[in-house]
Design goal:
280 residues; 15 strands; single chain; 29% helix; six-stranded mixed beta sheet; alpha+beta
């Protein structure tokens, strides 16, 4: 079994100064780490490097026997907008796949020079369990929000799926897990792309009634995405109703059963036979 937290660290309209806000985020991470003990944490949005380092420390200090490291892409150096994956090195060995990611993008851009042209919006990591040797292709993804319409964003998300699939075909993971802020109404996306096949399924859910974003009628934008072999242990993720002065989005937590795969890859391709796929 694996467990994951997905947390968008961006701030909305808040009167809190960043040191105070980051201190409250530290408190939240410490509490979640102590109670839920995630193996993996996906993060997105603008957050200072020094504060990200505190999250690494808080995870390691509040989960007994753990040692977390952060793998990230910086989308914007000025705002420190990022996508990150915090991993417990006591559980996972991190395998370098930078060349595989680069080759996939190069190959895709032969036919389409603008393919996933903001590739820093997704960080991909291949993690192998120290016990058991299962391989997980992990990604934190933050879709474009501004200066883009819904059809363009859907194209952007589909290109991310294609990129993810291409890397999976090269590195042959047993499972794929994504933590994301899609900035998009994914139920509508599912209806519009119902004939498409993707290597992951978006785990749709609604906010609980008491959540601030539900009360304010805000869209659900944060999702886990999984390949066919992963099995959620609950119908919906746990949603943390963190005050919007601290976090603009509600963090998510979920556990997954991960049976040993009989195949070398749980990805889909028009040219690969006998691989599990999702049709939206």
């Amino acid at each position: 079994m694996i467990s994951a937290l997905c947390i968008n660290l961006g701030k909305g309209k808040t009167e809190l100064h960043e040191p105070e806000r980051s201190s409250k985020i530290d408190d939240f991470v410490q509490n979640v780490a102590s109670e839920y003990k995630p193996d993996i944490v996906f993060s997105q949005d603008a957050y200072a490097t020094k504060h990200l380092e505190k999250i690494t420390t808080n995870l390691s200090n509040n989960i007994e026997g753990s040692s977390f490291v952060l793998k990230k892409n910086v989308i914007n150096e000025n705002t420190k907008d990022h996508v990150g994956i915090f991993l417990n090195e006591k559980i996972y060995q991190i395998i370098d796949i930078e060349n595989e990611c680069r080759k996939v993008l190069e190959n895709k851009r032969v036919a389409n020079a603008d393919f996933f042209n903001e590739d820093k919006r997704a960080v991909l990591v291949l993690a192998k369990t120290i016990i058991g040797g299962q391989k997980f292709l992990l990604s934190s993804f933050h879709a474009k929000k501004n200066k883009i319409n819904d059809p363009q964003r859907e194209k952007h998300i589909i290109e991310f799926f294609s990129y993810l699939e291409g890397v999976a075909e090269r590195v042959k993971p047993d499972h794929i897990l994504v933590g994301s802020d899609t900035n998009h109404r994914m139920k509508l996306f599912e209806r519009r792309t119902k004939t498409n096949k993707f290597c992951v399924k978006v785990l749709l859910y609604d906010y609980p009634e008491n959540c601030e974003r539900k009360i304010k009628e805000r869209n659900v934008y944060d999702f886990f995405m999984i390949s066919p072999g992963l099995i959620p242990t609950s119908a919906d993720p746990a949603v943390f109703n963190v005050d919007s002065d601290i976090l603009d989005h509600h963090p998510l937590f979920m556990r997954f059963e991960c049976p040993v795969s009989n195949t070398t890859s749980n990805t889909t391709s028009n040219t690969t036979e006998n691989t599990p796929v999702y049709t939206t």
